[in-house]
## 1
Amino acid sequence: MELPGTDTSSCQGETQPVKSHLLQSRDILVESLYNLAPLLDRALASGLLSQENYFDVRAEKTPQERARRLLEVVHAELDESGARGFLECLKSCQQHYPRLKTWLGSDTERQLKAQLSVLCSRVGYSILPVSLALFSSGILTQFELDQVQATPTMYQQTNQLLSICLSKGEKACCSFYQALNSEDPQLASDIREDPGASGPAEDLSALSLVSTAPSTVEAVQDTGETDAEDKLVSGNNPLSGVLQQVLALLDVCPGAGPSLNVCELGVAVGLPRRTVRESLLEEAGVGDVSQLRALTTLFLHKTQDAGRLLARVRECSTDRVLLSGRGGLLLKLLLEAEALFYTDTNLCTGHTLQDGDHQRDQDPKDRALLIFSYLLWEITAEALEDCGPGAEPGGDVKAAVRLLKGSACVQAELLQELEECLTEGGTESLLQSIRVLAQVLRDLFPLQDSWRLSPPADGAVYSCHPHRLHRVTSFLGLASRITRRALCPGSLLETASLPSQYREVCLGIARLLDRVQPQGGATDLSQAPTSTIIQHIHSILSLPAFRPQAFDAGARHRILAVLEFDPVLLGLRLLLDLHRDTLMALGQYLKPCEQHSFQLVPETVQILGGAVLSWVGRVRGPVAIDNGMEEVLRFVTSEPTSFLVRVFCRGYDEGKYFEVHEPRCVRVSGLGEEEAQALGGTGLAREGNTVWMREGWQGQETKLEEVLERHSAQAHEEGCYFKVTSSGSECEVKVICKSGRLSAVAERNCEVV
């Protein structure tokens, strides 16, 4: 077997041992395997991992640590044959790992990707018979064939067909070349004789989005055969030029499924969030490629500087813009709703969502609307601090949108547009609501925990809003061995029957919940029907142990969604994947973790100088150590600078809620430096006639009032501040909560006061 990502031509036909290849590729694998659940399930089902291996890997805290642990198991416990089996498992679920697409790809796939632009230009009228041949051989479905034929030009039809083939792997790519050889032997011969002529380097120069003429952005007129290139600036162009390079830098492959928050990428490359968001909602679909096309076009239209865009994409950490595994699954489900809307010919009559519109019907339109209900339920679970009875599954979806308006995690403008689209209910409005929902999902399900920054107020004050809601509770967690015994690995495996898989997921949830608050007398559900298990779960969730102060309301909310949205009745297999993810997430949540009962909250960041703050995120922690809690934050700015960060922490200690804002600071305006120093305390920073001081003035309130009155100055108490002076564009600060006070120390590239 030829290994992905290796060149065997120089080895006289011998291939590199799989275990050695995996070891040499450790860095890219650790970086790319950020959602291990599908791979672990496959490896366990294949007998390559033991149950002990499975739970050892799942017990690691971060995606990188889990990936390292899995590779250690493969290297230490599998022979060469086992390693080959592991690689086959990885290839079988490669759709979950878009960044490994190139590494896992065959020579045929790499060749087709390299020849993409030339084939789009030259296939021409052969596209119809080639597509029909692939449909006849079972490579294309009827829906995919319709997608190809629905695009307006032959160039775009070829691009659509090749994207589908690349998403399906080596067999589909080989079938395309066979069909092309039968229909156009001359073109097939040209490609075989001179494959390098259509390589990436030539394509990028030939199809660049940017003209060589100064100060212009225009489509290159390649041939008179198609007008597709004329539509580059509008966002309807095929993959080409600068866009191809952006895709390569981000390891994005057509058809791999959504995995990026492109709006966040737009902010990272320097564009205003609102401008990027409006462009994506106006011009882009749900998929990554469509959104990246819109972003590339927008940046080039604004700057006419392709090199600047590529340099900034190269500098951007992909972890900042990657979605979590669940986020990717939810967007795939949204794409399924979009496909259902397009296949329903009656949609043009309009369908306004009504109260209780939650019927289990196999009509495509109704199934699409049920997907909307489920997605709004997911958004509610992620965005509302307390998911109360008003957000129970099965409620009016418009009411759910209105309920979300109280959340700081979802942008108000998106919710307003979503509500308007759902109220209007016509074809265009419902399709537009899909774009809005896609952006809401992307914002709520990042891979890396970070904060959304509001536009700076008063010159340089950024407010921090969480992308991912963090609920603190008094829940302490259960020992891993307890959850391991409760969570039967069999419930995670793929079996022949969809109903039995759904039942096993519900049974796994019931067993885990029973460990949180056991009821009198053990209930044996091993032979019970699904309906009995669901009733048992409802009963457990009504107990005091699952109130919002004691248990994460979002986790409880998702469990209820598993019970309400039956993938068997709805005919949606992708729902089962999401329910299985809910089960695994519940098992992970129940383990002891400092995050259950502690949260560090950055409130604002004030830049002192002309730099721009672009990102704030959690790097590590919280960690309980030395009778306190520690957490490391990362700040990314446009250049080295100084800034003030205001923070507080909250949580539960022995069941009692607390908040810590000490040591407090005061902001004084209109006071000279000498007068400010005379008040005592620690001077943090001065900007103009404003000075920030930490404590020292307590007990001297009378003196402070006299000084302020004498100098016509004003003072405002503002919570806990720390001053950070960075030595680079990125710095890290460790914040410590101990004995009812906060302190901070430099972790990397900075000094802290």
## 2
Amino acid sequence: MDTIVHCIHREVQQTYYVLDLLLHPKRLCEVLATRFPFEVDGLLFYHKKIHYIPGSIPLVGWLWPYMVLLVCRPPSKKLFPPLFVAAVVGDYRETVKAMVGVWPFLKLPLGALMEDCQSPPDILKAALDGLAILLSQKVKHRRCKLKVLDLQMNTGTNFWKVWAGRQSTASVMSSEDPESTHPKTQILKEDKCRSVEKYPALAGMTVLTDLCFQEDIPNEMLTFLIERVKQTKDLPHLCCRKLELVRNVAPLPILGEILNKVQLDSVQEMRLLGSWDLQSLNWFSPYLSQMVQLHTLLLSECTLYCIVPGENDEDEAQKLLQQFTTQLLSLHQLHTLMLHSVNFFGNHLHQLLRSLQAPLETLHIRRSLLMDQDLTYLSSCPCTSHLKSLDLSGVRRPGSNYEFLPALLNRVSATLAHLDLADCGITDSDCDYLQPALGHCSQLRTLKLCGNPLSMAVLQTLLFHTFPRCNFAFLELPVPLNCYMDHQLTLPWHTLAEVMEQLRLTLQLHGPQRIRLAYRHCRTLCDAICIRMDN
């Protein structure tokens, strides 16, 4: 027997109350890695020449569980992964904080455990506090080998499965390989500066994370980085696939200090949200031009003009736009461009599209007012020749004439799979232009027209001519205007049922389908008839 329990037994309740647990040192690893339904108080260390005596005596030392790894020398680093998992799942923040500073592997994939912990923000803060202590050390703990703190979720890592005994150790050998712990792109050489010489813990230290900086969402990573910048402390390398910035989340100089530590050639998705105008976009554009692996760019609620006092406001805006679009010439991997509620001035859209070097697969332009020249250019610019997804929902133009659309649809008819024209003000007469062009889109799977004032007769004609030629799997159609009462405030169910039955009869030759009403559709706030084909 290598374990003795000092406990009290209450016979009435048939319960043992454990005061102390005496075990052989070989069992220490097993116990520390066990998840108990209670928090372990601490560990008692008795002098080897005395016997167990309950209570406090001079020859007994006491440690918090997280202090064991700092004070004692565990028999094997195999103890660390199960103990760390137990600390994260059990929300033992001090343990997490301490273990970051003594982690014996090159990589710590913390993000893969976030879904299982009770309080992800608190665990992240504890890990970052541990990282801050590690970065401040001139000499690291002798056991610590940490080079990469991976905060990314859903990375498919096998690290924790291996140490849980669910996979072979051969599959985790890459976790101890220096080359595999770093991103595929090369760490920027200029970061090997005097701060690394002063603090060796910074040498090669990389944090893998998606940086999403938003004002209204608490973000422990943002707080960590901003505080270190304000305190003029050095930052680790930051490697991220997704970068999201809100204009007013921090002063531009502080954002600049953070971006200087980001490995920009690893960014694949960039989102700029909020009140970015051409002046602030030009401040950011040198960073954007270095994102050579970028495949997705989102501008939301930005302004592609600048209010400059004086007589040459338009000339100044043209100059600033030219500076910004020039930086886009290096984005050869860009295939998705999303412009949401972007304010354009004059014909600035076509200047933006003209600067793109590679054909786009996805183009979203939502809730914007566009001029004739911009809309006409959409159907002829090189970057729109191979679109697979086109979203123009909420796009309006003076006169509500959509004669430009057939030319664009005919151009991408061989590739277009998703088309969203919701809430564009398209009328029955506009459908006369659209119907033949839609029929040429043989790969079209999704069509959204909700929020447009179309009649039942036009909808039936549109479906009759396009279904045999397209490959529809899902449609969102507007509820015909004649179905409403009281200026679209009341929708009688019996009238809607008749409309849905007529649509069902129109489509019955094309296979089984499911038809339902989406009341006040979340994005357009319009009612929609949703049709999903079961083929």
## 3
Amino acid sequence: MNAIDTDLFEELHVKYENLKSLCKECFFQSNDKQSTDADNTDNDINNCGQVNKIQMSELDDNFKVVLKTIEDVIQEITPEHPQYIRLIAMNASVLFEQAKTLVSDDKEAMAKDLLNKAIRLLSNYARNTTISFLYLRILNHYACLLWKREEFEKVSALLENAENIYNDIKSSSVKVFNSDDIFVPDEITNLQDDRENKLEKLVTNNFQMLSWAYNRLNVHDKFTKYQHLVLQRLLEMRDDNALMWATKTGRLATYYIDKNNFQQARYYLAAATLVLEEYEGDLKKIQMNDAVMIKWQEFHQHYAEIGKCWTKYGICLFNESKNQMAKVLYGDNNKPLVNLWNIPFSFVQKHSKPEYIETKNEDNPTRSEFKSEKEGGDVQETKDPLFKFPSLQVSEIENQVTCKFVQKTDEARALFMFTHTWLKRSKSHYTIKEHPLEYINGIFDLSELYRFVALFESDIESQYSVQKRRADALESLSSVLREYRPQCYIPVSIELFRELAEVQMEMMGLNLRRLSAIQDNSLRADATTNRECMLHKMRAMADMHARLDQFSELSMCEVHGSDMFGARDDFDDSTSSSKIIPSDCEITIDVDDDEEESDEATEEGSTDSDNVVVTCIKEQEATSLRELAETSV
């Protein structure tokens, strides 16, 4: 058969349209969007509705008739015939429609066989403009069935092939045909304008499924690559709702948060925030009505979701900063106490570099290690995010929060304020009456923020104040739950009591540190007083030794003076007494009667000079000892 009658294509076109109509009658459409039209590119083939069992037999008979007609024509022509590829595409289209009905009738095994048959028919002509779009659709649905069977390796291989075909089609810049175009009896002259848009949607769905398959296979690099590619395509097409796009971007950011890639996570959250702010600006320009009110409610819901993502970002960044500090303190697990007493943070002196950073000590290598980590050694990446959206400028939002590990008190406070701001925005939407669980989780997140910022505070009073606010927040939550949501109080009471007990332990530890500081100050004051007393005693002892030296010299002089009295007869008694006794020696003060009598005897010459010298020495010793006692006291 060299020529095909044009009436045959008209007949096939009529039968194909009847099949489509009968499919719509056989399925109850729960939603207008869940259409079984051949051009529907939704990859969820479970949304085909409820099967009308009464008309299924009639539908199967019609499928068999159309397939028999097409297969008979194909057998009569050669592959070189101009209409051969078109008839192959018709056959695959009918198989594809029949497979979708079987999936809706819970006959996935039969549907899988039909789709596999259609793929074999089209595999040699996949890059032909008549077949490429249909082939990609069949691969999409076949991958869905494989996904349900958890054959993820086959899914990834299948969709990678679909990606290669799409790249070849885009590089050739040719028009593609859909199923309706294939069954048109006349020559196709006017292509529909939405054909390219449908192809892009289909490829985006394939990329989405491919990323999920890589995630199940633990190929995380390719998972993030295709997830970003999907978001990029949705942003360029402007087809997806801006709110949904922001939520999807926030979810991808949480994936990076779990991987401790805070720089990429910050970029995605900033991009989602920017899109939401632009959407909010557009809403403010629209006059308020019922439809706009619904949009505002949806906006607040998605905005609260992004707020939760920002809150998780701040808490996880605090937690990882704490872990980095623990690594600096403990180092190797085999040597847990090597760095225990090293100062872990640089905020000990707020406006100056810590001594342990400036000091070079070859015997203590841990100091230089912490310095290199602080300066960006191996602690954190400083490169730009790997994936970006060229059409979005998010640097202004990114600069509002750090992506590096916290080391200083000022950095901890800045991160706390930023995270706390987003937590309050989420709390404004998640109220205790409408969203009790989200409200409770928000209070626990606030408790975590207080706990981390207290850890990075250097002052005991500041730490105590933060812990007190943490206790107040938890006690307020306990009171609110008991009053408004008693059914929620019992499930969370254990966690609540644990948090309160931890707070009380922290506050008790801070009070003990306060007492220890007071005792240290008291000991330092006592040490100062003891030092002054000691110096006073030392001066008294020095003065006593000086006086004893004077008496020693005086006694030596008196010994030589007795010889002098025997040699000179004309020596005057009064003059000799003034020469022998020093002028500072007052022997008449506090002297006994016996001593006064001895003085009078001396003046009268009744005693010799030796008795005068001895009496003078005794008086001097008595006076010096009294002065030493008074001075010591």
## 4
Amino acid sequence: MKMSKGILFATILFLGTSISIADVICTFGDFRSGVVRCIPGHDGVKSLLMVHVLGNKQNSYIDELHIKNCKLLAISGNVFKQFRNIYVLDLSHNVLVSLEEDVFKNLVELRTLNVSHNALGTIDAKVFQPLTKLQDLDMSHNFLSTPSAESIFSGLASLRALDISNNAEILSLPSLLTGLKLKSLRISRSSLTLPEIYDIAMPDLIYLDMSSNNQLYFNGDASAVTQKCPDLLYMYLSNIQMKTIDSNFFTNNRMLIFIDLSKNLLKAIHEELFSANEELLSLDLSQNNLNRLPRELFRKTIRLLSLHLNDNDIERLPSDIFDSLKNMRILNLANNKIESLQSTIFSKNRNLNTVYLDGNRIKEINPYTFAANSQIRVLALSNNLLERFNFRVISTMENLLQLSLDNNDLQEISSDVVKLYSLYELDLSCNKLTALSPSNVLDLITEGNRLIHLHGNPWNCACMNRLLTYNKGYVDYGRNLFSDGKYPTCIVGRSLYDCDWNITDEDYNSWVKTRKYYPNLCLPRG
């Protein structure tokens, strides 16, 4: 029987579409979906009191119960008596400060429980014992601290995913996890200490997040930790004040596909650090203090797709450092101190589609640097020291959508421009350009809508006059020339919008007609 999605206000409802638990309104649309969602009533919710919510006939249809963001302060012991068969219970984003010992005693079929984003402190050791089939437990963003003498997770033999991140101070972690066969463990931002980490033994673990634990001081040989988790696929170690890392740190984790070492204090890494990680797909070394990269660092990571090296102090890159990364799609080298690029540095990376080189000190780019990279869709070169840009650099990029050259020292754009049919956005703002030849821009901006950012340059009005009145077809080709809403300024201080233009009546009439449909069009007023 299919029900509508309206909301009715009733305490007990057998045939309608919603139920009321105290001041909580619970609504569902189709019994066959088995999902009930609750929202706060008119006056908010102070407590969730026990009521007979659904009759036995309706109860058999319910698989999920969501009481999220309902301002709950407390839950009485028998409130879920009528929900013995639910698989998912979401109590997140409330203001629960405690859980009574028998609050979950009837939820014998529960598989997923979310009590995150509450104000839970110390929890009774027996509160989770009835949940023998529970597989996924999220207790993140609470105020959990020292647990009771008996582990609150004892008896959860089916538990596979546990999130206790963003809590006050999780102590006695090894004893807390004793007996669990977890696949996923999130313990970020929980004031962990190194001795506790050394004692963790999780042979079945495939996902481990220990990020943002500033008291770890994970320096030197910590391979004892990774040895106990040989099947790891995902490992997050960002923002843990790591200053050094041993070459054998990941030796026992040959299945890793994701490593995050960002936001640490690493100045150097050994060339053998990832030698055992041939399955690695994503590596994040951003926001460290790296000033150089060993030539053989990525020799074995042949399957790598995404590499983030941004926000370091890298000055030079070996010419063949990326040669083994033939599958790489994303490369982020932004905000380093790179001054030049070897002409062959990307010659083996034919699958690159996104390259960030912004925020460096590059003065010139060899026209053949990206000759082998026809798949690039996004190329960021902003905030460098480029004085001249030769568009031969991007001549092979048949799929280029976005080119950022803003905030450089560009004074000249080369005349040998090829047509870029795919280009959607070109940013030339905040440079030292005074003129662009009509042929240059018309070759860059072909058919269709395009975005060109030209503000922040000392334009010469006379030169731009010739550009914008090149022919009436330019109105169609470049109608969104100044669509960022910032009118370029002439070298004499006037806005290009106010310049005195020499334009034919035919061109003017074409402009007036187009203006009705494209109000951001920046052309002379006539």
